[in-house]
Write a structure and sequence with these properties.
single chain; elongated; mainly alpha; 5 helices
Length: 106
Amino acid sequence: VAAASLGLLLVPSSPFLLTGIFSFLLGAGRAFGVIFPLVTRHVYGAERFTRVYSGFYAVFLIFTAVSASLFGAVYTFAGSYDGVYLLILGCTILEIGLVQWMFRSA
């Protein structure tokens, strides 16, 4: 999703091109729905997987619920979704750092 967000900021405004790029990268990003449970199980072990993954997923769902309102507020304040795309990109960079930290501390 972050790559799609960056692409939407950098690619000239062509609705069909932007929609195609965003759709492709969004679909490719869905693979992480499979990878994340596997990584969690690998890092924390099978005996702690259900407790750890349920906590991760609860936080994920809370942020999913809040994000729509947050994105709407950014649009209302700024008048465009450029700030939302940058926010998504920043969150993705933070996520990459946290995953690397998780692997080092496990």
